[in-house]
Structure formats: C-alpha cells, structure tokens
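Second attempt. The first submission of Vacuolar import/degradation Vid27 C-terminal domain-containing protein had a stray character pasted in from the spreadsheet, which I only caught after the job came back as garbage. Lesson logged: always re-copy from the clean sequence file. Corrected sequence (644 aa) follows.
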Amino acid sequence: MGGSHSREDLELSDSDEEEYETEQEAEEEDNYEDSRDETPDRSASSSKRRPKTPSSLEEVEAKLRAMKLKYPSTAQNINAVKLYLHVGGNTPKAKWVTSEKLTSYVFFKSSKINSQDEEEDDDDEDGENEEGWWILKVGSKVRVKVSMEVQLKTFKNQLRVDFVAQGVWAMKFFSQEDYKRFVDKFQDCLFENTHGYESSEVNKMKVYGKDFIGWANPEAADDSMWEDADESFLKSPQSATPVRANQDLREEFEEAANGGIQSLALGALDNSFLVGDSGIQVVKNFSNGIHGKGVFVNFNGGNYRNSSNMMNSTPKKALLMRAETNMLLMSPVSEAKPHTNGLHQLDIETGKIVTEWRFEKDGTDITMKDITNDSKGAQLDPSGSTFLGLDNNRLCRWDMRDRNGIVQNLVNDSISTPVLNWAQGHQFSRGTNFQCFATTGDGSIVVGSIDGKIRLYSVNSMRQAKTAFPGLGSPITHVDVTFDGKWILGTTDTYLIVICALFTDKGGKTKTGFNGRMGNRIAAPRLLKLNPLDSHLAGIDNKFHNAQFSWVTENGKQERHLVATVGKFSVIWNFQQVKDGSHECYQNQEGLKSCYCYKIVLKDDSIVDSRFMHDKYAVSDVPEAPLVIATPMKVSSFSISSKQ
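This time the job returned cleanly.
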C-alpha cells in the first residue's frame, strides 16, 4: 500500500540510457552494413555487366520506392520529436530510456487500428482517407488509436507529453510551437473519434450545447464555483502528491471471508455486510474498521434460491432498509444481462428471507437494472417502505405497501408473490439508456447514462430533468453525489468526472442544478485520472468502477475524500485538493483540468469494492472514517489521516 506510485517525474536525460542507445546504434550500424553489402564491389565491376541506367526520373523513383528507404520529409521535420520509453515499472530501477533520439509523429485516418503493415500505413498516411479512426503513429515504435485510453498527460513547461500504447512513452518537443501543434491536433482528433464530428466551434456547440460550451473550451468557463469550498474542509497541501506516504494510510484489519465476496453493504449503525457467492456475512463496525464474524445467512440452506425463479445468480446489489434491520437483494438474470424482474427481502435479525417481490406496472411484469435508497440517509429510517428503481428507460419509486398504504401480508403462503406498488415515476419513450443513479440528502436524484450524459431530477418530479450535463463521450457506469447535492461524481472506464452543480440564479441566489435551470454560467468539470504509468500497471483490461464520496448523512458535514477501484488498485483523492484550482497539479495542463494527485492501496487480488465507512466512525485524531476494501476472499480496513 502507499501513495501514487508514479515515477514519471524522473528526468528525461540522456545519461541513463547510454547502454540502451549503444545497442540501438549497433542495430542501426548493422542495418547500414546490410545496405552496403548490397552495393556492387567496384573492383569486380569491370568483369561484370553494369546495371542498366534508368531511362527516366519516374523509373528512378519507382526503384527507390521499391527499396523502401525512409528519408525524412519536410512534414516529418516539422513533427520532429524525441521518444522515450519507461522501463522498470514501479521498481527502484525504473527509468526513462531514449527509444529514438530523433523521430517524427503523424496523425492519419485508418480503419486498421492495430495494423503493423508498413505499406498499409504508407497508403493511409499519404492518401486523403476520410474513413476510419484517427491514429497516432510515432516513428516505427508507436501506433495507437487516439482515445481517452491513451491517457495523454501534458507537461507544458517541459514541452512534453506522456501516454500509454502497449507501454508508457514520453515525447519531447523542440519548441513551444511544436508542442502546441501536437496537443491541438490530438484534441481535434480525439473530439472527432469520440463524437463522430470534425472538430469545429459549430460541431462543439452541437455536441455540448451553448450552455455548456465551457466544457469544450475550459479556458472560457466560469470556475468561480469551484473555489467556493467550505472552510470546514482541510486546506489543500501545498506540495504535490507524496509518492511514498505510507504513514498517512495504515492497515488496521484484514480478515478472510467465508466465500467469494461480490459486494459490500456498509451500515451506519452496528453492523456491515459482505455479500458473497454462498451467503451474507455479518461483521461488526468499529472506529478503526470492520471485523469479527457474526451471523452468516446461507443462500443454499434456506428459501433463497430454491423457492425462486427470479434469482438465478449471486446478488449483485444489496440495499439496507428500515434502520438496517432489512436488506433487499437483487440478482441479475445473467452476467450478460444485468436486469431482473424481482428481488428478495431479507430480515437481518432472523437471518431469513421474508419474501420475494415482483416488479409490475399496469398488470405487466417489468424489469429493473438497479435500486437505491430514497435518500442518502434513508436506510436509517425504521419505518421506510419505499425505494427507487432504474431501468434503461424507466425511473420510479417502489412502495412495499399496497395502493392504500397498508403493509402487505407477507407471511400468508396462500398469497402469490407480492407485487411492488409503482408509487411514482416515468417511462421514457425515447432511448435515455439509463445506467446508474444515486440520491442526495433530500432525495433529489442523479442519473448517469450510456451516452455519458448525467441528469439531475428534483425530489418532486421524475418526468423531466432540471439539468442535463452533456457527455464527454464515455459511458457513465456509476454515479454518486454529495449529501448537499453540490457535487456530482461520475465513473467511466478510464477516468472519473467531478461536476460542480452550483450556480447563481438571476436574483443572485446560489442554487444547485437539482432545483433550477443552471443557465450558461456553468463551471467546466474536472477529471480524475491515473497517470500513464499507473494506468499501464493497473492492466489493459482493468477499468475504473464504483467511485464514491466519503459518507456523510448530516447537513453541514462535508465529504473529505473520493475513492475508486481499478484492478488491484484502490485509488483515493483528497476532495479539497481536487477543488483547489490553484493546486500545482493543475498547472501547465491543456484542456479540462485533470487531477493526478492520489494515493493507491495495492492488493494481491482484484478489488471488488472500496468504500468509506459512515462519518460517525471518524475519530478526532483521524478525521476521516476508515476505508474498507474487499477482494473476493478478504476484507481490509484502513485508517487515513488528515495529512493526505
């Protein structure tokens, strides 16, 4: 465990790479020797027939082209760069080595993203290909589709960019103009690859809308709301993220679980719950984490799977209700289809399934893909009978009481599977492609979609969003919101997006986008990313998931941190640092501000989930509640100090 493992700040000097470069030069020398070997020996030429002199310039060019000699063109000189490769991973021997002392880059369109055929490359680069994706090619070593997966990180003051392409690379430019030309072209290609439109002011307006044009041109956006940080927050550290800050992050407990953990259900009262393949493990909450084994509810030994045709797999969602005495368990139909047409209700005190519910509207069975509590603190309400449901084109509130508000008789075996009452909601006729949702302290709702849009609904209406933030092109796979509704956190595969929902209305009053139209003075979002090295170390198939704010359920208290999971990494950001626009992490960047200041907890196995315990478990000398990290076979608790 420890801090951000980046060694990207190592100097891109030539002194460390002499051995590497010598090998490269030897290779090049061999190539030159091979070329000379093909040249006829002059001493023997008199006894042999001389080659025929080409009859025309066209024939000369044809012969030269056949030899595939690579002479730098004028265009290549304009795009000249020095290319470095990072070697050694996160070991003490990690360093940058010079891959090519002088090479060039080119952007071109191709339908063959991973093609290694040089002739095809030449055809694509020379022709006016209007089809396919924009590709970045650097010398003979790098060929990659321009996308967010490249994880481009800019260093304006160093005339340098770092990126991932089957390895971690750095390019150094020879002038400010060269650097700016590359960054501008990369951003244009990224826009077109992402949205399908050529990068222009008109098309940016088409994608983002006039109210959100600051998202496309961050320099013109109003960032004043970002600086409106509550003074109760700890002030941002003045130094960059500590690379080795183990003293700020301490493991308190680690325990083996009964079975493959699928999800965490953290309680704010006495207990938390580990939902696994074979059942639910009850554990105790303490000020330094969760541990101690209590009751175990076995799925196979009771009436959970055997009595139901709705639950075909391990529950992927566990929702605490009624002062954490009940739990709703939701299982997808299959791994490929996350929807389900019902759920089970577990009585935690008895350890038994009370009933199974069906989702139904107007006499027709319907499906849901996610459920959540009515509000941030709703699981603490002892009389709570409602919760929210989400499907691709549905947003609704379900009630476990009948239409007359009477609790349904769940113990009468003669009654068929009870039906949840659709109490409020809307079925959208057009493809909203809802993916995930969360609630604020007052019950306002934020919904993320596959197209990257994030919609805000007031507590009074699910029919029309008060605010709809445009997508940046990546699907939102998970979403969270602060208790006060001021800040939104969206998860995508390759980055997190933090949105300020505050705005000032015409009367000068500060509101959130949940209860008013934000107008055109909307702050640009900020992105939370792994640096290219950590992204590469996390693994090509590993993606961000389940980013969360720390957990508060009281007005006046503020979330201090954010946490997300990617592969074997649990990644933690200081929220105040994210909001501090003057923080040095944001200096010398291009485009949307991206925060690379984080800590990493590294586990031996892929992490299932990472969540902060309830704020009540924070103690005076460690003002943040413990962080709980679950892998399939273990659960660990960490304390995190205010020095982070």
